[in-house]
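Researcher: I'd like a candidate sequence for this fold, 421 residues long. If you have to choose between options at a position, lean toward the conservative one.
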């Protein structure tokens, strides 16, 4: 692992800094994959994780059909791609859902979008290119005509036996529509991941309460629950728990029997006076990581019984950023999502980075999309307590450790719009 020995401030503990890459790899390798599934109706499938491939048992379309409103024509061989001026007798009218009669050579049928092309028809001409003549009993066309114009052949979209949806996708409206188009009415999906959360700390007050000296409103509680709900997790929220070892152990005991994952914020880094760390160590196992990144650094991972445990930092921006960079991919892997890591794009930094930093930094930025690539402006205050920066920002730019650069440097950008979905 890419580790760096540092003095963490404790008398007897010298703990290595773990790289962001190593920390994420460790988490993803440790994430248990969901195996519990259920069948849901299409109306209830949005946002669920598909647990088995969906195959089509039909061709789509199931028959050759017209791509537009017009006229289905039986074009003679000597009329193909020759100068226009041809006249065709109208012998039928075929709305969608109907099957027309056979069209003889030199004849045509009025046809509407989606209607089956009748036997004998070998091309469809849009109505705007046809002139009605002889009391609307015939059409005349003045341009050269090709075979198979505006005819959608059977199986043009989907062929019988095609895999149309792959296991491990998060179902979107278009996925559900595709399943419906082949007659599938239910989908096999993974059960929701159940995540238990609780919060300790005498300094924390729920919004709506009254702050005393030294107290703060507990924004992390609402951050964490909102992020988990956004990911489609089932959240078991115990709220604020009395700041004692017994109460903390009781909360863990309550959650471990019913949850796949337990999460907390704050109070688990080395040297902090908090009951979460000793409680997790008493009931399970805990690894304390100091990650070579900013904002963030302290992250705890372990287990209590069969339930996984992740402890996030206490500062609000650090909690949110480490959730997005580490907990989100971990949970997505647990959910059964095939591509569980965060996606990035390339953008140009619209600022200089003059001082080489020992840790990888994730800078809150807003994009100017008037150029290609887009330019990223950094928020002027990058402290881990500046929660307003996360509202202002479009995403995070990743700045590698020990790096300096001038304006225009191309860097990885992680969109919040994607990571918050």
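Model: Candidate sequence:
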């Amino acid at each position: 692992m890419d580790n760096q020995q540092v003095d963490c401030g404790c008398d007897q503990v010298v703990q290595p800094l773990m790289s962001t890459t190593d920390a994420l790899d460790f988490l993803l390798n440790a994430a248990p994959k969901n195996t519990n599934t259920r069948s849901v109706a299409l109306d209830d499938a949005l946002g669920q994780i598909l647990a088995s491939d969906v195959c089509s048992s039909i061709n789509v379309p199931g028959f050759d059909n017209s791509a537009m409103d017009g006229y289905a024509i039986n074009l003679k061989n000597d009329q193909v791609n020759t100068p226009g001026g041809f006249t065709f007798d109208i012998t039928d009218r075929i709305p969608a859902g109907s099957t027309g009669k056979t069209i003889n050579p030199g004849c045509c049928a009025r046809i509407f979008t989606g209607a089956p092309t009748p036997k004998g028809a070998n091309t469809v001409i849009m109505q705007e290119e046809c002139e009605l003549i002889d009391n609307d009993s015939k059409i005349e066309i003045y341009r050269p005509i090709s075979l198979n114009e505006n005819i959608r052949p059977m199986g043009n979209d989907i062929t019988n036996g095609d895999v149309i949806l792959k296991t491990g996708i998060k179902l979107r409206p278009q996925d559900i529509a595709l399943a419906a188009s082949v007659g599938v009415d239910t989908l096999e999906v993974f059960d929701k991941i159940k995540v238990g959360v609780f919060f300790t700390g005498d300094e924390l007050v729920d919004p709506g309460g009254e702050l005393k000296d030294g107290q703060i409103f507990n924004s992390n509680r609402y951050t964490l629950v909102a992020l988990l709900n956004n990911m489609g997790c089932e959240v078991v929220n115990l709220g604020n728990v009395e700041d004692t070892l017994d109460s903390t152990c009781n909360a863990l005991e309550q959650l471990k029997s019913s949850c796949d994952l337990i999460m907390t914020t704050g109070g688990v880094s080395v040297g902090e006076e908090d009951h979460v760390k000793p409680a997790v160590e008493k009931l399970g196992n805990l690894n304390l990581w100091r990650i070579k990144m900013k904002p963030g650094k302290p992250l705890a991972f372990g287990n209590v019984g069969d339930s996984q445990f992740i402890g996030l930092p206490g500062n609000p921006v650090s909690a949110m950023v480490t959730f997005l960079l580490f907990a989100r991919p971990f949970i997505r892997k647990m959910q059964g999502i095939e591509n569980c890591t965060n996606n990035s794009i390339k953008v140009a930094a619209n600022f200089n980075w003059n001082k080489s930093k020992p840790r990888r930094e994730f800078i809150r930025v807003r994009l100017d999309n008037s150029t290609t690539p887009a330019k990223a402006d950094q928020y002027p205050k990058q402290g881990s307590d500046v929660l307003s920066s996360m509202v202002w920002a479009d995403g995070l730019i990743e700045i590698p450790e020990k790096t300096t650069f001038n304006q225009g440097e191309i860097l990885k950008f992680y969109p919040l719009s994607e990571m918050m979905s």
